[in-house]
Amino acid sequence: MTTQRTVLVTGGNRGIGRAIAEAFLADGHRVAVTSRSGEGGPAGALTVAADVTNAESIDKAFAEVEAAYGPVEVLVANAGITKDTLLLRMTEQDFEDVIDTNLTGAFRVIKRATKGLLRNKWGRVVLISSVVGLYGSPGQINYAASKSGLVGIARSLTRELGSRNITANVVAPGFIETEMTAVLPEATQEQYKSSIPAGRFGQVEEIAKAVTWLASDDAAYISGAVIPVDGGLGMGH
Ligand code: NDP
């Protein structure tokens, strides 16, 4: 039987994060999600407010989750944004905003979770990166930098905490049908599809399956890995 864990998914009110939260709920775990409004998580999950650009708000969210469900045992750092534009038009602010949310945001939540994971002598950290982090993408220098940075975090975390029953892995989704990709022009979507060996965009549930597996006891010996879930787009990571 699977051990019931306390799971926290950042940005679990919509898109990929929501599907991840739903998959953990379906497996019987205690699930909390963050959203910026503090509302909108799936039924059965505790929704708490957190902005990952603000350490104080993260601390408050963790305290609420701990009070309700005990220490976080599985952390999924999923919250992310894009601010796409070609390099010559990209402002320093565009770059910093994306790094602050996607990369420093992950650092903040992982740092807050780590004391509890160490005390617990068991833990799972899953970072939601992107095929773009290692493949690159025009107009996404800020986003690609933030997403490849997550690999460095997972691998360093593995070296720091690997002997304590704590694993840290990266899931690198390809193009997944969510609000983030719905804004792409039709022609761009078709162009992307033609370069994906699977010939289609992925579904949020396909990401969620990889994440729940990495968090399970079956994946205890997998750490510092980058698991692509991208229909073959980024082969060679
Ligand atoms: P969505 O845009 O649908 O959702 C983004 C989530 O992140 C929301 O829950 C949002 O919360 C949260 N979020 C954004 N900024 C902050 C912040 N400052 N503090 C706290 N939460 C924040 O994105 P997806 O579901 O598509 O993407 C989820 C993750 O997967 C992201 O990291 C993304 O980069 C990655 N990804 C997505 C791909 C795709 O094709 N969709 C492909 C590869 C990777 P709120 O609702 O409160 O704004």
From TrEMBL:
Sequence intervals crossing the membrane: none
Domain Ketoreductase, first and last residues per copy: 5-179
CDD domains attached here? Answer: BKR_SDR_c (cd05333)
Concerning SMART domains, the annotation shows:
PKS_KR (SM00822)
Which InterPro entries does the UniProt record give? KR_dom, NAD(P)-bd_dom_sf, SDR, SDR_fam
As for family, the record states: Belongs to the short-chain dehydrogenases/reductases (SDR) family.
- Name the PANTHER family on file: 3-OXOACYL-(ACYL-CARRIER-PROTEIN) REDUCTASE, 3-OXOACYL-[ACYL-CARRIER-PROTEIN] REDUCTASE FABG
The record's annotation in NCBIfam families points to: PRK12826.1-2 (NF009466)
Name of protein: Beta-ketoacyl-ACP reductase
